[in-house]
Amino acid sequence: MTHTHSSGAGPDASHPESAPIEAIRLRHPWRTVFAVVLLLLVALFIYDAAFNRPVFNWGEVGKYLFDVRIVSGAGYALQLTVYSMIIAVVLGVAIAVMRQSPNPVVKSIAWVFLWLFRGTPVYVQLVFWGLVPTIYKSISLGVPFTEAAFTLNTKDLLSYFTLAVIGLALNEAAYMAEIVRAGLLSVDKGQNEAATALGLGWWHTMSRVILPQAMRVIIPPTGNEVISMLKTTSLVTAVPFTLDLYGRARDISAVTYQPVPMLIVASIWYLAVTSILMVGQYFLERHFARGVLQRPDVMKPTVETQSVGVVGVEDPAHPTYPGAGGGESIVPPHHRPGGGGA
Asked: Which family does it belong to (predicted)?
């Protein structure tokens, strides 16, 4: 009996082409429902605040939004923020360097400073600074255990604005010190060693090698601290300094007996200024993060390459040479440096 065996389709057999894959997007109906519910809640809140809550008194908000006293208070809030942050950054850098000092006394003083100002509330610190003119009524300068050369009245020397700046700056310096220290520690130790090997001093090493690399880590939290400082200025009433934005809004509400509209006015100004600061922070972060998130281009070979085979048949165009051990012959690179004939 003869059996016919089919070996399958031959090379000329036609195969039907497979249909292209149709990708179907995964649907999330509950996610859409949740988004719609959120939009409805926001719309209801806006409608209720605009028409059903007379306590908001939007006419009063518009009346005092650009009042001279409010604008002046916003200016004082910005001054407190700028002056306090400048002092805090300088002190923070100094304390961060002290924390890394090999001298145990210097390191201990820096640690005690951080422990004191980070461990007590900023409101309590501002109250204390407001009482400094009462505690130290005068400041005398001269040789110890002798009659003072001259005496200064503390109230005349330190205004409430100055005391507010000092209180905010010292509290913020404790946090800036840790931010700067974290940035310095993020730079590889080999960078410092390489700068020392090149003969750079401490100042040039920090300013040209370490700090530019550490700024990528320092800038984001510092921007957050600036925004936080602007809002913390509302606490300077503890000094007491009442010419800031919140203090002026509170004074006006004490006369009009409408605190809610004035709180809205102050909030609008805080939001406007913080929005500007956030934009500045974004551009600063992008400037100091240049080259970090960019993928390097793939390196391409400078010469053509190809495999070098062992020649078994003599070819005059490609001379062969015996191997190092006297064995098989090999073909050296030819035509151009690095091999790869044209």
From this structure: Belongs to the binding-protein-dependent transport system permease family.
pLDDT, tens digit (0-9, with 9 covering 90-100), for 106-165: 999 999 999 999 999 999 999 999 998 888 887 777 777 777 777 778 777 888 999 999
Q: For the chain, which residues make up each domain, given as ranges?
A: 78-288
The number of beta carbons lying within 10 Å of the beta carbon of residue 172 is 25
Sign of the C-alpha dihedral computed for residues 286, 292, 295 and 299 taken in this order: positive
Regarding beta strands 329-330 and 321-322, do their DSSP bridges make them parallel or antiparallel, or are they unpaired? Answer: antiparallel
- Map 176-220 to HEC letters: HHHHHHHHHHHCCHHHHHHHHHCCCCHHHHHHHHHHHHHHHHHHH
* Cα–chain center distance at 280: 11
Q: Could you tell me the fold of the domain covering 78-288? A: MetI-like fold (1.10.3720)
Is 101 in contact with 177 (CB distance < 8 Å)?
A: no
Closest CA to 184 of 215, 230, 150, 140: 215
DSSP 3-state assignment of 321? strand
CA torsion sign, 266 to 272 to 274 to 277? negative
User: Cβ neighbours of residue 179 under 8 Å, at least 6 residues apart?
Assistant: 92, 218, 221, 222, 225
- Close Cβ partners of 341 (under 8 Å, ≥ 6 residues apart): 306, 334, 335
Integer Cα distance of 342 and 323 in angstroms = 25
DSSP string, 235-263: GGGGTT---SHHHHHHHHHHHHT-HHHHH
Q: What is the CA radius of gyration of the chain?
A: 36
**Residue type, position 300, single letter:** K
pTM: 0.71
Residues, the chain: 342
